């Protein structure tokens, strides 16, 4: 987002910062995330096929792929290298960006998402796709001009977006409705957007006034016309209000609502500390997503050859993640035990790997660490001098319980992470690889 006092998008280090929010995937966007990850996995397969069969060169624009984890790492590049004030969202990223821009009187939002022309936020919605980084020239999408050209009022745009398809009401769920209203147009399969938009606007004519003031009976009527029944009227209300800024989100609940909340548990302190650092982009996003319900970890596509026998990195590193989950969720397990419940903790994993169609997530058990390992509450919040040593011991135990911390100290600090990863791959990764090969032989 741009503000009048800070006009540059990427300022020189040390100059006035630009404000940017970066995405943590909310549940409502999961279907779209899955769709993009599946397509990305197909693109990666095409890259390896092109290289092996057609001898394509890495410079070929047709097989271009951004490096793995660029989406996650870019925030830290902007914050620490470009010295920009950078934030990571807790809920819906688009909403947080729009609210930030409105709250801070920003000049505009630089992005490439049609939702920003619907939000009543900054005056200018500037196209990142059309941005010339040398001249800083780009295209402005004018909300008022857009609504005027369509013959609508600005506050009717949320209903238009809901009837065309958005993150709440997906376009494929509206296909029958779009076919019905475009029956006079010539099309094969799906109607063209240039045919759909005027028909949807005509459909909206009886529903005058702001989308936010539509009564329940009107929403029932819209649902009846679109889906054939009134059961999804609330879905339209949810979709419309997804564009209303400054709505208070429900407070997060760490454990079952029936659990006693009379005493402040260390886990709540940990969640508060993690959320603060997460928002300020001082922490990788996985910590917050695993600690806060519904406890989710996700990984996008890696540049891996799915045709080879090598297992995917998402699976090889899973045993390591399971140990880390145990440390992060130790306070939750303790609280479950205090309530007399069996503390079998699990984490939802959305991982892209060979053979996974992402039709549903993997539910992964937390693997307990050796007795005596300190929980994240202690490692994160405790300020005693010995905590530094506990952190070091925990790191070493996560990589390998058989290699002593004293032996790890002999590795030069600049090589430590590389040696740790290689050690894990040669020990745990190799065992996983041969176990998979043996399993395939038995199945065959």
From TrEMBL:
<keyword id="KW-0472">Membrane</keyword>
<comment type="similarity">
    <text>Belongs to the constitutive coactivator of PPAR-gamma family.</text>
</comment>
<dbReference type="InterPro" id="IPR029060">
    <property type="entry name" value="PIN-like_dom_sf"/>
</dbReference>
<dbReference type="GO" id="GO:0005634">
    <property type="term" value="C:nucleus"/>
</dbReference>
<dbReference type="InterPro" id="IPR026784">
    <property type="entry name" value="Coact_PPARg"/>
</dbReference>
<feature type="transmembrane region" description="Helical">
    <location>
        <begin position="415"/>
        <end position="435"/>
    </location>
</feature>
<keyword id="KW-1133">Transmembrane helix</keyword>
<protein>
    <recommendedName>
        <fullName>Asteroid domain-containing protein</fullName>
    </recommendedName>
</protein>
<keyword id="KW-0812">Transmembrane</keyword>
């Amino acid at each position: 987002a741009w503000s009048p006092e800070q006009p540059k998008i990427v300022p020189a280090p040390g100059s006035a910062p630009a404000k940017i929010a970066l995405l943590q995937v909310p549940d409502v966007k999961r279907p779209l995330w899955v769709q993009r990850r599946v397509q990305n996995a197909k693109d990666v397969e095409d890259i390896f096929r092109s290289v092996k069969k057609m001898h394509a060169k890495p410079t070929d624009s047709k097989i271009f792929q951004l490096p793995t984890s660029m989406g996650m790492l870019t925030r830290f590049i902007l914050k620490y290298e470009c010295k920009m004030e950078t934030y990571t969202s807790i809920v819906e990223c688009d909403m947080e960006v729009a609210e930030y821009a409105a709250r801070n009187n920003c000049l505009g939002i630089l992005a490439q998402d049609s939702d920003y022309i619907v939000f009543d936020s900054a005056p200018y919605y500037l196209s990142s796709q059309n941005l010339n980084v040398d001249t800083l020239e780009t295209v402005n999408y004018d909300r008022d001009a857009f609504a005027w050209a369509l013959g609508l009022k600005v506050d009717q745009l949320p209903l238009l977006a809901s009837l065309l398809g958005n993150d709440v009401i997906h376009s494929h769920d509206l296909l029958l409705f779009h076919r019905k209203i475009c029956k006079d147009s010539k099309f094969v399969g799906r109607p063209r957007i240039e045919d759909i938009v005027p028909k949807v606007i005509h459909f909206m004519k009886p529903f005058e006034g702001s989308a936010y003031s539509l009564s329940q009976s009107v929403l029932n009527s819209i649902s009846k016309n679109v889906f054939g029944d009134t059961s999804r009227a609330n879905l339209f209300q949810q979709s419309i209000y997804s564009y209303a800024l400054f709505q208070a989100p429900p407070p997060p609940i760490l454990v079952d609502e029936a659990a006693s909340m009379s005493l402040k548990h260390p886990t709540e302190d940990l969640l508060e500390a993690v959320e603060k650092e997460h928002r300020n982009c001082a922490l990788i996003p996985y910590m917050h997503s695993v600690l806060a319900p519904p406890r989710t970890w996700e990984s996008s596509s890696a540049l891996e050859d799915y045709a080879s026998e090598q297992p995917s990195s998402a699976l090889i590193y899973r045993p390591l993640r399971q140990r880390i989950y145990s440390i992060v969720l130790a306070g939750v397990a303790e609280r479950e035990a205090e309530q007399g419940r069996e503390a079998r903790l699990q984490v939802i994993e959305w991982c892209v790997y060979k053979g996974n169609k992402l039709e549903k997530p993997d539910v992964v058990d937390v693997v307990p660490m050796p007795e005596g390992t300190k929980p994240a509450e202690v490692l994160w919040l405790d300020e005693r001098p010995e905590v530094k040593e506990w952190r070091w011991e925990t790191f070493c135990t996560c990589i390998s319980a058989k290699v002593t911390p004293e032996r790890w100290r002999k590795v030069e600090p600049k090589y430590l992470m590389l040696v740790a990863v290689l050690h894990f791959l040669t020990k745990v990764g190799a065992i996983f690889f041969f176990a998979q090969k043996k399993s395939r032989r038995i199945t065959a």
